[in-house]
Amino acid sequence: MRSFRIGTLFGIPIKLDLTFLLVLPLFAYLIGSQIEAVADILNDGLAAGIDTATITSGLMPWLLGLAAAIGLFVGVVLHELGHSLTARRYGFPIDSITLWLFGGIAAFSEMPEDWRQELNIAVAGPIVSVLVGVGSYALFFVTPESLSGVRFVLGYLAVLNVALAVFNMLPAFPMDGGRVLRALLARGRPYAQATQQAASVGKLFAVFMGLFGLLAFNIILIGVAFFVYIAASSEAQQVTMKAAFQDVTVGDIMTTAEDLHTVEPETTVAELIQRMFTERHTGYPVVEGDAFEGERLIGLVTLSDAREVDPVEREAYTVEDVMTTELQTITPDSDAMTAIERMREHDIGRLLVVDSAAHRSADRPRGETLREDDGDLVGLISRTDVMTAFDIVQQSGVIAPSSRPGRAD
Ligand SMILES: [Zn+2]
């Protein structure tokens, strides 16, 4: 992972992403290099009475820039804690809070689909930011005018935390304001539809933000625009899939064992590649034994496994040498969404579908390399299977799960 843990607050791990280490000195530099202009704004707007001569001498601009940048990111952590603690109050576990290039991310393992809960979780962050801004202003107010540096940092944080709250409330899904918008839309329509509408508004905002960033030569704004656009698309797709795949199981969309092409461990890599080419499959379960003594699943071999062997050596290597024996499996009655999430989590293209119930009743030997919970191979589910099924559901609006008779529609 590119991030490391720096501590724990309220039982939630706080992590720093490596990109954050780039952005912290950059922020310190940007604040330090504009210190006089910012001090003038604070003097005009808040009657700060900051003596610009003291804060611009020697290393002072850079020290104050660093202090303000750190203060800003403390504000971001508090903002994310606002979201996290509200979510936890509703019973959603929080994995971590990570500081990265564009601020903070609170990672939830699941998101609420109840609009009231989402609304409260989304507004909690900006509310905390406003409170941090007000708190900074109160401290600024009681700090004597002789301490120009401290007044500069506090005045700066007062303004910026409020600005952060306002910026986050832009209806650019998946930013906070966009989540508020989705929550409000979800009052009157299905969750997936509300998400798609909020995501469209979010993408539109991202395009405007990006154009504005280009015109203003603001790289950070362009970066945020890209991030918003991609995040809005992917979250909308995920929610749409989840809605489309409601009640669809792995068993409904997998390639069943009868239709499955398998290879033996003795097959050479050269033969395997030839078969992949003619059958246009890129992954095969590796099966040992025959129909008489019972077939045993011992591994999975994919095109990328085969490609690791040098072309000139492909005659000398067999499937057994290159196959994966650490198998990721799933049961046929699992949700299709679970399969997608598991593939994404392990960054793999296919899962073996095994029936653990069938396995427990059968007492025959099995591959030692397989894990304890592995049972009989009943099929294989690939990303392609899932995407094809998703296309069909999207275009036809239905999927006909033949395997579950008696389903009430
Ligand atoms: Zn937020």
From TrEMBL:
Q: Which UniProt keywords apply?
A: CBS domain, Cell membrane, Hydrolase, Membrane, Metal-binding, Metalloprotease, Protease, Repeat, Transmembrane, Transmembrane helix, Zinc
Checking InterPro entries in the record gives: CBS_dom, CBS_dom_sf, Peptidase_M50, UCP006404_Pept_M50_CBS
Q: Give the binding site residues for Zn(2+).
A: 79, 83, 176
TM segment ranges: 20-39, 59-78, 90-109, 121-142, 154-173, 204-232
According to its UniProt record, what is one Pfam family this protein matches? Peptidase_M50
The entry sums up its family as follows: Belongs to the peptidase M50B family.
Q: What is this protein called?
A: Zinc metalloprotease
Which species is this UniProt entry from?
A: Natrinema ejinorense
Q: What is the lineage of its organism?
A: Archaea, Methanobacteriati, Methanobacteriota, Stenosarchaea group, Halobacteria
